[in-house]
Amino acid sequence: MKRRGFLAVSLLMVPLRGQTQANAHVSTTDPLVVAITKGKDVIPGKVKLELPALAVNGHSVAMTVKVDSPMTGAEHVRAVHLISEKNPVREMATFYLGPHSGRAEVGSRIRLNGTQRMTAIAELSDGTFWSDQVAVEVREAACTDGG
Amino acid sequence: MALARIQVPKEAKRGELVEVRIVIQHPMETGFRRDADGKRVARNAIHSLACRYNGAEVFRATLSTGIAANPFLRFFLRAGESGDLDFWWLDDDENEGTARARLVVV
Questions:
Q1: Where do the domains of chain A lie?
Q2: Is the CB of A140 inside 8 Å of chain B's CB atoms?
Q3: Chain B residues with CB inside 8 Å of A61's CB?
């Protein structure tokens, strides 16, 4: 009976765990992330990646990334890296900013090869890394099928 | 060859935040697409872009095929003196492009 109870509880846990991983934190063992951070920790927060929850097609999706920073000489954002989970080219873009930027906000239009999680990692002047991750549902993928 | 359109406010006050937008006419060819004969179209995307304001670099980006065709970029800078915004970019075919816009500071 004890074993049966344990099994029932563990089965209940499965869907719960699946849900919490939908917007899970960026993997620091990902070679692409390691190349950026050189093994340093990536802390969730400060970064806001704005993408639509659903895109009818992935050919051109509006993207905005904002970082909470005063953008002064002493404290500013050095770079913002954009990483795709499922695009054939995962390293999507890197934007280099500085105190002259005044505001840490960059917008663009991106291609998405299917439903995936998009990650933005910001590198600050104090050497710390902050991130945000957003799930985007894409109905018609770009890149590999014709577009 | 490459055409670009830059949007900056008509005038800015000194020290004010200015939003700069640029659209460049470029296919950002992924290298995965096939033409009518079934041949692969070679990858050709803008991979580097920089913006100088009165000669000093204020924005730089490395791009990939993950950026949509006719790449659009939007960023901010703090207005100092009246002067030129000089954009420069380079694609995989080693084609350079430049574009210039004037920022008037009052």
A1: 26-140
A2: no
A3: 68
Q: Domain residues for B55?
A: 4-30+41-103
Chain B residues whose beta carbon lies within 8 Å of the beta carbon of residue A88: 30, 32, 65
Confidence of residue A13 (pLDDT cuts 50, 70, 90): low
Which residue among A82, A101, A142 places its CB closest to the CB of B58?
A: A101
Any idea what the CATH number is for the domain that residue B74 is in? 2.60.40.10
Residue B83 domain-assigned (yes or no): yes
Q: Which residues contact A25 (CB under 8 A, 6 or more apart)?
A: A42, A44, A131, A133
Q: Is A64 exposed, middle or buried (0-12, 13-18, 19+ CB in 10 A)?
A: middle
User: Which A residues, 41 through 80, put their C-beta within 8 Å of a C-beta on chain B?
Assistant: 59-61, 64
Is residue B64 domain-resident?
A: yes
Tokens 């004969």, located at residue: B37
pLDDT tens-digit series, residues A67-77: 999 999 999 99
**What mean pLDDT is predicted for residues A7-29?**
57
**CATH 3.40.50.360, domain A26-140, yes or no:** no
Write down the pLDDT at residue B7. Answer: 95
How many other CB atoms sit within 10 Å of the CB of residue B83?
16
